[in-house]
Inverse folding.
């Protein structure tokens, strides 16, 4: 069974392949680029702290 991360990488690598004209010979490069992009997105979402947004909203709009 393919996990969610691998599914997203596979889909992104396919998009990159199509964007470059569907040429053969770059599958590893597309996979590695897609892997970096998906992992970067995951790192960014983990770094977001929802309590920070609440704190900022409360500071801007005190009750």
């Amino acid at each position: 069974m393919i996990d969610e991360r691998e599914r997203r990488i596979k889909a992104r690598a396919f998009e990159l392949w199509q964007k470059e004209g569907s040429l053969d010979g770059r599958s590893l490069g597309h996979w590695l680029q897609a892997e970096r992009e998906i992992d970067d997105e995951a790192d960014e979402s983990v770094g977001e702290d929802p309590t920070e947004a609440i704190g900022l909203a409360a500071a801007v709009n005190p009750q």
Notes: The CA atoms of residues 45 and 56 lie 18 Å apart. The chain has a mean pLDDT of 82. The chain is about 75% helix and 0% strand. Helices lie at 4-19, 27-47, 50-60.
